[in-house]
């Protein structure tokens, strides 16, 4: 059993900051890529930022220069520092990870339950 649990969402004013955390727990041998996605009402889920086990990162154009993804491999945790938040960043943010549970089995993809981020004055 593997769980991804997000935290850190909430209500923030435009221009403000939030830091999201996602901790993976359970039967985990190794984690390759971790990422944050978001889904706004009436829109498709989209990739916000991703990071590999080696630290390579990629970002959606809409968040470059404002958001920073990082990870703590020892604690199977990924973070998303979000600065200069705007109303268009309002969405449910989901954690995603590629996890191998035991030697010899394939990687599987897992999702967290999501955390709401609302940017409003």
Protein model, in words:
The chain has strands at residues 2-7, 10-12, 18-26, 30-39, 46-51, 57-59, 67-72, 77-82, 91-100, 108-111, 115-119. The strands form two sheets. Strands 2, 4, 5, 6, 9, 10 and 11 form a seven-stranded mixed sheet that branches. A four-stranded antiparallel sheet has the order 1-3-8-7, with no helix packed on it. It is mostly beta strands. The protein starts with a strand and ends with a strand.
Overall average residue pLDDT: 97
- Main sheet properties: 7 strands, mixed
The termini sit apart by 40 Å
Q: What portion of residues belong to β-strands?
A: over 45%
Q: How large is the count of helical segments?
A: 0
Helix and strand content put the structural class at mainly beta
What form results from the Cα inertia axes? elongated
Can you lay out the helices and strands and say which pair or pack?
Elements: E1 2-7, E2 10-12, E3 18-26, E4 30-39, E5 46-51, E6 57-59, E7 67-72, E8 77-82, E9 91-100, E10 108-111, E11 115-119
Parallel strand pairs: 2-11
Antiparallel strand pairs: 1-3, 3-8, 4-5, 4-9, 5-6, 7-8, 9-10, 9-11
Quick overview:
With 121 residues, the chain is an all-beta fold.
Features:
121 residues; seven-stranded mixed beta sheet; four-stranded antiparallel beta sheet
